[in-house]
Batch of 4 targets.
Target 1
Amino acid sequence: MSHSSAPDREPSGRTPHRASRAWLYAALAVSVVCGALVLYSLSGLVKMPSLTSESAPVAPSDERSSLDVAVARTAGGPGEWNNWARVFKYLSEELEMPLNIRYLSKEDEAASIIVASDADIAFICAHQYLDLTDVSEVEGVCVPIIDGTTTTRMWLIVRADDPATSMQDVRNSVVAASDKSSLGGYAYLMYLCLERDLAPSDFFSEVRLGDSQESNMSDVLSGDIRATIVNSAQVASWDMSEFKIIEESPPFGGPPVVVNSDMPQELQDRIEGILIGMNVESQLAEDSVIDGFVPVDPGDYEFAKVLRDSCGHHDHKP
């Protein structure tokens, strides 16, 4: 009796050799395809040098792809922040490189942060300028012309309807000043008292420290305090008709723009030339109090040194 032949099978029901080889070939094919896909995806991340790489020009070691800018103080107060943003944008475009802007809110720590971060450019107050140039960390580049002048003054102010005409008239009153590290705050208050051989705690009923100039001015208007000290360059955008100046300091240099002392001279000159040559009328808002820039004159900061020395807590080190 004849029987139809059945396919040979491995013992114990295992897959035939031919089927095993088919599965093996399929697995190898999948591996090859997957490997090709992986290599393709990595080709965008890892690139071999081009044939012309050896002859391509090498960038100078001091060439920068971007600049770090520390902003500790810009003249004009909050009303000018948008215009200062336009200044940064203009500088970036003219230099043809991005600026990494870092705003420093704590004035007493700004100088040390600028040194530690090795900032390329910094917008700083007169106090920080003195401290940083004393240790040769920065070079002054230019200073903004604010409302027609490159200098600023310290003012002791009261409300416009206050009968006081001098500091003597606000004895036993509450007075406020900004942070102790500010030459426009506690330092000028100390200067006024030292001139009269007085201690602030004995002359005033209370001395409040720490709030911003803008906050203190609002407190004067509300009657919460009687007098406060402001920096004329910082309140240029305020309506000062609401206030009366009862004490005024000699003028001294405004908040300057400085660069790192290690910056190549060519780049320093470019930054100075761009800012001084800036056409502010075409770049800034029509009502801006920023009228342009001129080179820094170190001699303008002599009275700033007097103010700094009036406050005993300053050690003059960044």
Target 2
Amino acid sequence: MQMIHKGLAVVLMLSSPSFAFDGQPLHYEIDWGPVTLADATVQLLDSGDVRSVNADIASRGVGAWLSDFQSTLEILRTGDGVQVLNGDSTWGDTLSNITVLWQPFDPKPTVDFYRSKPRDYELTPVPEESIANTIDPFTPVFEIGRQLEETKRCEGSYRIFDGIRRYDLAITDGGSVTLQPDKPGNFSGQAYRCEITVARIGGFSTKKSWFRIGESEITRTLYLGKIRGHWLPVRFEISAPLGVAVARLMADSRTVASQ
């Protein structure tokens, strides 16, 4: 199934006349203060009738030393309302894969999940009724990008389910800002600031540890800038008492040259 999804995305990229998101690779570096945690490559394609996401993330630097991991996420949504999320992850000698399927006439998605080793911690329960009328984690990015082009504001509320975690997402407009590059060649210029709050419903770890923090102690800010004529994520910040994690769009001739 994953091969079919990848092939369909390539065909659409080559044949569709115009896109709200053009499917070209976006490269991000994820840092925590002065240290690098991971690299990510994301491709967002929107042909109007079909949306697709391909995302790959792998630990690097201190991140690989703390926990060597790699994760791949694929999402495909067709014009008839069918939506599939496929995810594969490895960390250390453990692997997992998940498929979530939304059907147009069924309010609740189905989930197929495999993990090679059992967890050594419990998850908060996900009420069965809460997964009805949910969407995948990337739908807000598509909708906010389109909204900015029309209204110059980013705002909305979403019921998110990724097959394990269920949460409500609220996005409020933070206005237009001017970003300065913090590394040579990185994105600079006008961007829109979107403040994000999360209400956890279920599927989150109950494990107690010294670094476990609540949602009231976390702030999330997404910045969207114009890349090749499209409003795309250029920076994402998560602030917590232990520090700030930042995902930055990296300098790349395909992503930065046409700002």
Target 3
Amino acid sequence: MNNFNKYFKLVTLLFGGFISFLGFIIVLFYLLKLCSITLFNIPGFNSFFELVIIIIPYIIFFLGYYYLQNKIPLSKSKITAVIARVLIVVGSLLCFATLILSTLRLFRVHKSFLLTFDHYSQYAWIAQIVILFFTALTIASGDAKEKDWMQKNSEKDFVH
């Protein structure tokens, strides 16, 4: 087998893989559209879908706070651990409060503060992301300095 045949086979496989991937995406979108049309004809599914769409981001934020909470004991500095715990508590309270307000808005409670929250709800999500980022930054700043590759290799050579 010469080089031309090898490269032709390789290019053919790459092109076939790309076309197959596009075909898979098209079939997947078609099936999802078919499922959504079918499911939205079920009475009450629209409300259930809206509830799931509202809850999913808050579950992701709570999982982020839980993950960072488990990383706090690995921090060497007590000050960074305390700051990280305070940020996690503030972030969790903000997440819980905005979840309640979003759920009240979903159930169409007519209060003026919910209308205000509806206009500014994106800022609560931005605040959550910023709190998660600064919590991770705080935890990372309390870790011991990582050794570079030369120090690791010299220690490995020293042990042997």
Target 4
Amino acid sequence: MNKRYYLPLCFFGMLLSVSICFAYYYDYEPNMLSKNLRLAGIGNLDLVIIERINEINAYDYGESPAGAVSDNKSQSEICIPFLYGFTVFGDTAYNQEWHAGAGAISGIFKPGEKIAFGGSFSKTKAAEESEYYMATSKSERDVMRYSLMASWNVLSRLSIGFRGAYHKLTEEDSSFYGTSLDVAKVTCYEPSLLISSGSGNWQGGFDYKYKEYSREYGDTVIHEFAVPIIHSSSNLDMGIRATLGTIPDSGLLKSVNVRSIYKLPFGNEHVNFGFQLGYVSPPPLIWDDFYYGYIPGHQTNMGFGMAYLNEGFGLLGIQYKKEILTFTEVSTPYSIHKNCLGIGTEIRLLKIVPVRFGYTNISYDYGYSGTSYYDVITWGLGIQFPDIGLKVDFCHNLHIYKHGYYNDETDYDHTFGLAGYFDF
């Protein structure tokens, strides 16, 4: 996503061992609405459509490595995704080119009912070249990520887990003024434990995360302590995740997030109702996975949506998300409002070939500075072979940005994705 059009404010997503987490920031890696290609093809209806990356369980929502044993219906899995993106700029003053490709492989294996272990590797290369009044500059980015994970169901109601990750970014910039080389690294260690109730409907855990950001001019170390609480039943799934972290020179990070999905069945069809609410203070500023800091203030997240699902037809859904970022340590406190409206559908032309379409509008209200927005048009398809546990997904996202003094110039970001999933 182009850096010119948004403020990258979000939590840093830990690289999971069963799915590759691309950073989704322009200049470094291709951008897709979701790292899951099915969700990316239907406008990212992640509040109301459940996929393997956004289940409300201890492993996906709770981010607990100890929950890996029971994730994905206790099946082993292998995931191989590929992404490619390029931008067509509408800026007449600059002659610019940007493209990037990413590939990954990850897996989690469960030789029995009590043990799970896995790992992942991903690599991305991106290149940008711009020319302005005969002055040419070039930038190349190389990103590599590794992770390892293990989980063990020690007792019938107690599981422990550990996850480790290492990320490395190499940047090389060249221009009329010369060439510069910069290397950034992120190392993360995360032990966890998880306790289940006798009925199996409730789970609660404790996670500790040590993360170190290393650069040539200094290191930053953060510590996070998280408590995930999960409730699951036939019609209702609900998750709560509270976090307390230490921040260098900035006090404590405090956050709480709640998400739920309710399934209302009608024979072979049903309606999903999704809801989320979150609060974090102060909100973290993370730029391309490798630059870390905090902004004085707080951020509130909320969202809701609904989707109709029919086993024969497919699905149709809509959802709305809102983020309010409030800056407090300024002479006049103010807020930035981000609104995200998404709609999508999946139609089963054949039983094993779903076709997907979606649209998302993302807008920012900067208060005194006005508003900006961009559109994302999505489509994709899948091929499913349930008898052997194989699924292949394809997706294309088109980001459309309007800019210029009269909003008369347009940039187009294209991202294509192909992924294979094998469950066994």
